[in-house]
Write a structure and sequence with these properties.
Layout (H helix, E strand, L loop, with lengths): L5 E9 L11 H8 L11 E7 L4 E7 L3 H14 L15 E10 L5 E6 L2
Antiparallel strand pairs: 1-3, 1-4, 2-3, 4-5
Length: 117
């Protein structure tokens, strides 16, 4: 993989009471957040970690090419269209949030940040 096509996304889960949920592991976070297939577009290499007292799943997505990363971004953006969601949370009253994206330079430093919520 070429490190020049890489970005990080930050995810969290809110319960029906609007409080953030805590994850026990990255696998638990994946199950509870309920990522749909759009998150696998272009077959990115994923590195996952928990942050913020285990209430945030940070996923680093790495791609073989700029076109693969663009296809991924377009698929995810499209997943939010037409009253759909790119998530199917394990508990249907929970709300999965992709609240921040960091676009990275080739050395891994942050090029730009998009705060989404």
């Amino acid at each position: 993989m070429a490190a020049q096509w890489k970005h990080k996304r930050y995810f969290r889960l809110r319960g029906s009471d609007t409080n953030l949920k805590t994850f026990s592991s990255t696998a638990d976070a994946n199950t509870k957040l309920g990522f749909t297939s759009v998150w696998n577009t272009s077959s990115p290499t994923k590195t996952e970690a928990l942050a913020d007292s285990d209430q945030t799943l940070v996923v680093t997505y790495e791609f073989d090419s700029e076109s693969d990363q663009t296809a991924f971004k377009n698929a995810v953006d499209g997943g939010y269209g037409d009253s759909t969601s790119p998530f199917t949370p394990a508990t249907d009253t929970d709300l999965s949030e992709n609240f921040k994206t960091e676009w990275l330079h080739q050395d891994g430093s942050v090029s730009s940040t998009a705060n989404l919520l």
